[in-house]
Structure formats: structure tokens, C-alpha cells
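Team,

Forwarding the record for the chain on the shared tracking sheet. I've put the sequence and predicted structure together so nobody has to dig through attachments.
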Amino acid sequence: MKDRHWRTPYHFGSLTVWGTSLDSDQRRAGRAAAPRADLGIYLDDRWHGEADALRIRFVDWPKLEAPTAPDRLLTVLDEALGVARDGGQVEIACFGGHGRTGTALAVMDVLTGATAADAVARARHEYCPYAVGSTELELFVEEIERGRAARAVTEARA
């Protein structure tokens, strides 16, 4: 059985974000005593009624597929980066804490300047070997990197 994550820290640059799975015995056992995140991004509908962050954001994202609303995801990840940069605690969670959560962590890494390949490798090495758990998710991270590069070119020309 794959490991389940309970606020597993993921570091990129000077920022730290928690990765969590709903299906975690540690989460169920320690939930009442655990500190609440300042911002929680929940990538699975089963978190409704379970999420305990001070500010809660949900993103519709099918398991092992690209998100159905990528602009919404990028908006909330940008918000998360702001919270983390301001010293707040961010939690990103799906059901198992691997595919969608790992992908969101890799995307945040790309948004802060990493290449998609480096971000996926870092997520798998430092967070979870099952992170970004499908080819479609890997391609999504690459798509975010291409979009970041295209925005930079457009801004440079303006």
C-alpha cells in the first residue's frame, strides 16, 4: 500500500507547503490537536466537511487527469504562493496525497521558476515517489511551464 501523507512538508526555495491525504490514519487521529493551515487547497470533493484550514479553496480535479479548471487551479496556487511568501501555512490535499497533490506542488515549483522536469523530479524525490502519478499529469506540468515562458515573452514585448 502506498504511504499516506499527513501534512508532509514540501520545500521549494524558501517556501514550505504541506501535502496531505484525506485517507491518512494520522490525519484522523491527530486532527483535533493539529494546527490549522492558513490556506487549504482541496483537490477532491471528499474533503467537503473535512477541511479545516482557516481559508478553504476547492478545485475540481479528476484523479490522475489534468484539472478540469486549470485557470482556477493557477489562481488558487498563486494565492497559496502569496500566503507562503507572507509566512503563512498552506496545505494542499487530495484523497491519496500523491497524484493531484504532488502535481500541484510541482506546479507551484514551476511558478517560482523551476523547469517542469526539475519540479516533477523534486516532488518525487523530496515529497513522494508516487507524486505526479500519470503521464497526463506530467504533461500538465510541462504545459504550465510552456505557459509561463509564453507569458514572459509577452510581458517582455509589452
